Amino acid sequence: MIRILFLLPLILCFGWYYFLKVNGVPLKQGKRGFIYILAFSAFVLGFFVLMIHVTNPA
């Protein structure tokens, strides 16, 4: 699962981009959403990396 985690921000960003285009919102106005998506994805990735290091028996 950790191997495909890089897809999370890509899918969310594409979804946000589609939402902005469908609703006629300019990208400049929706920039904060991309920042939130990237921050959330970094948090999730950091959590999983921490859990791997904490639970590693070696």
Model description:
This protein has two helices and no strands. The chain has 58 residues and is mostly helical. The chain has one domain. α1 packs antiparallel against α2. The mean pLDDT is 91. Keywords: Membrane, Transmembrane, Transmembrane helix.
Terminus-to-terminus distance: 21 Å
General form: elongated
For the record, the count of structural domains works out to: 1
Q: Give the strand content.
A: under 5%
- Total strands: 0
Secondary structure layout plus pairing:
Layout: H1 7-22, H2 31-55
Summarize this structure briefly.
The protein contains two helices and no strands.
Looking at this protein, list some descriptive labels.
2 helices; mainly alpha; 71% helix; 0% strand; 58 residues
